[in-house]
Amino acid sequence: MTLEEFRAAAYAVVDWLAAYRESVEERPVLSRVEPGEISALLPAAAPEEGEPFADLMADLDRVVMPGTTHWQSPNWFAYFPANSSPPSILAEMVSAGLGLQGMLWSTSPVVTELESRVLDWLVDLMGLPQAWKSAGPGGGVIQMSASDATHAALVTARAAKSGAGRAEDMAVYVSEEAHSSIEKGCNIAGVGHCRMIEVDEERSMSVAALEAAVKGDLARGLLPVAVVSTVGTTGTTAVDPLTEISRTARRRGMWHHVDAAYAGTAMICEEFRDFQPSLEMVDSYTFNPHKWMMVSFDCNVLWVADRAPLLEVMSILPPYLRDEASESGAVIDYRDWHVPLGRRFRALKLWWVIRWYGAAGLRSMVREHHRLARRLADRVGRDDRLKLFAPVPFGLVCFTHRDGNEATRRLARDLNATGKAAITASSIAGEDFIRVAVGQAETEERHVDALWDLIDSLA
């Protein structure tokens, strides 16, 4: 592809993307293809000769669109959002075009220094401890997902206790409402026991149950190494009591990791910060700008209060990665902050999104989504056919049909079958409920009102 061909093709792609974003609201939110239907559109073998770019573009409509679930639709209320935005898309194009490799500071200094500075911005924007800035004992790093960040935290916690016992005798504690990635992280880290701690009536981790579980494990000769708190669980956006859990973690010598994958974005608004007190007592914290902050997937941030244990676990320095800058200790080499060696220029899209919308623009979006969620929750609460299943601290509304599980499942099926909106159905302790996540970047009051009209007509 010559540069002239590249220029023409790039314009065609941007035009197609702009047209897609203009039309996405009118498309059925959920893909309606059957299993194998997309595969049937594809040849069994790769082409021997190259094809015209026009054919590649044509297959966006012929092959890609039928199998697309439209996460960027303003009628997306299903899983937590995976928001993209025009400045993020453009930054991804620049990043791909530059093709930078940021494993070391020296391999592309801008990848490292821009990342450090933008994550320092977020410390201030989210009201996080100043010690988490890059100039302090801690620091932040962009990872692929909250799962990767949690895995890194658990491996670090395990290593910190490696001199005190075997990994198979170690235990990690987590709310039974927490994300499944934590149990997976325990498996990857080789931790022998992942304890699911019961929750209270607010679906938050019971500190009394946590204390009892730790005490019982100590009596059995096991070694408690970490506790993971959640700010905004996947099921219901429940919030664990961080202060009390931090006290238990410190008293028992455990690493305390906080998973705020979805709700962390809300902390750019000061009024939400009461949900995460005492952060100066935790060891690590993660959230996903690629959920609610309009930064396209993938972009997770992990902060640690003290980077030394993380670097001790992750750092391996073969001769071919040694250079003068790294040896000086004056730079950050982010390859030592996670499992992968290679690193893309993810910070560029985070930088552009923050600069384009500004802190005020991001706060306005979060507050509006929270207002719309509360508006929907109030309607559910006033309807004698429905009832709220959980509080609404952020942008997720959970409710059930008063006629029971079957009626709830039927309502969920019927809502999704319309193609006019996408929601998710879930279940906790044998009770089915419907999750409505108000958080897609383009969602407005009229979209939530239209969803309510659907609920009203189908309930």
Protein architecture, described:
- This protein has 459 residues and is α/β, with parallel strands linked by helices.
- It has three domains: 3-69, dopa decarboxylase, N-terminal domain (Up-down Bundle); 100-344, Type I PLP-dependent aspartate aminotransferase-like (Major domain) (Aspartate Aminotransferase, domain 2, 3-Layer(aba) Sandwich), CATH 3.40.640; 362-458, Aspartate Aminotransferase, domain 1 (Alpha-Beta Complex), CATH 3.90.1150.
- The protein is built from 14 helices and eleven strands.
- Strands 1-7-6-5-4-2-3 form a seven-stranded mixed β-sheet, with helices on both faces.
- β8 (386-388) and β9 (396-401) form a beta hairpin.
- The termini are far apart.
- The relative contact order is 0.14.
- The mean pLDDT is 92.
